[in-house]
Amino acid sequence: QQQVKQSPQSLIVQKGGISIINCAYENTAFDYFPWYQQFPGKGPALLIAIRPDVSEKKEGRFTISFNKSAKQFSLHIMDSQPGDSATYFCAATTSGTYKYIFGTGTRLKVLA
Amino acid sequence: SQTIHQWPATLVQPVGSPLSLECTVEGTSNPNLYWYRQAAGRGLQLLFYSVGIGQISSEVPQNLSASRPQDRQFILSSKKLLLSDSGFYLCAWSRDTSTGELFFGEGSRLTVL
Q1: Which of A8, A67, A96, B87 has the greatest number of C-beta atoms within 10 Å?
Q2: What is chain A's pLDDT, residue by residue, as a tens digit (112 residues)?
Q3: Strand pairing of B10-13 and B108-112?
Q4: Which residue in the set B44, B51, B105 is minimally distant from A102, CB to CB?
């Protein structure tokens, strides 16, 4: 029940295309869902996050879509660029706790 | 603004040797501090977290330990490294648990030979 299942494991997208990464969770107590971007040899950087009271959040080319009833959320990268090539992690946590449950990551490669 | 520093960035150690990884946070007070380990191609495993000086909670029993001697300093240690301790170690901090935001350091790559 504490797992966050992330898919796909890897993704190849052409420059200018849309990258979509999906995550699913079981624990309905989760109330904060961040996405992290990690470049090789670097720590994960907080990219964008959403709370269950909204269905979508957009920041630049990055959009989170959230489906509370299905217990799923996804990251959409519009107009994908080679510089977006990185590993993306979804995560979930419950406010007031110290536990963040991370997905297993998606390695994105954007072809020039 | 807040920054998090972690060192050393890279470390190669023989089996049985000790380990000390350090992490400091600047620009905030009384942060929650975390140590994670990331194995190659895998997700993030929480090792320890701390809500204050001297307060350490362990998530995974192993031969690692953590200490928080100062408010913004978090140290990961081992007396005798194992081969299985190799990995990418990440320090992280959060302001409090209400916002949910968690910020990571640059990581320390440990190779045990």
Answers
A1: B87
A2: 678 999 999 999 999 999 999 999 999 999 999 999 999 999 999 999 999 999 999 999 999 999 999 999 999 999 999 999 999 999 999 988 888 999 999 999 999 9
A3: parallel
A4: B44
Please provide the DSSP assignment of B50-112 as one string.
EEETTEEEESS-SSEEEEEEETTEEEEEESS--GGG-EEEEEEEES-TTT---EE---EEEEE
Tens of pLDDT, residue by residue over B11-59, are 999 999 999 999 999 999 899 999 999 987 678 999 999 999 999 999 8
Q: Is B19 exposed, middle or buried (0-12, 13-18, 19+ CB in 10 A)?
A: buried
Token pair for residue A77? 């990268």
Residues from chain B contacting residue A102 (CB–CB below 8 Å): 43-44
Q: Are B5 and B90 in contact (CB under 8 A)?
A: no
3-class secondary-structure state, position A64? strand
Q: Give the closest residue to B100 by CA, choosing from A99, A68, A58, A24.
A: A99
Sign of CA dihedral B60, A28, A87, B56: negative
How far B104 CA sits from the closest chain A CA (Å)?
6
Residue B27 exposed, middle or buried by CB count within 10 Å (0-12, 13-18, 19+): exposed
- CB-CB under 8 Å, B103 with A46: yes
